[in-house]
Amino acid sequence: MEDPYSATPYYNLGIVKSKLGDQKGALESYNRALTVNPMFGSAYLNRGNIYLNQGKTSAACDDYLQGKYNGDKGSFTNFSKFCETSKKDFSKSNKNSFQFPAFFKRIQGSGKDSKNIYAYPTKKEAEKEAKKLGCVGVHKMGQLWIPCAQNIVN
Question: Is this model's pTM higher than 0.90 or not?
Answer without folding.
Answer: no
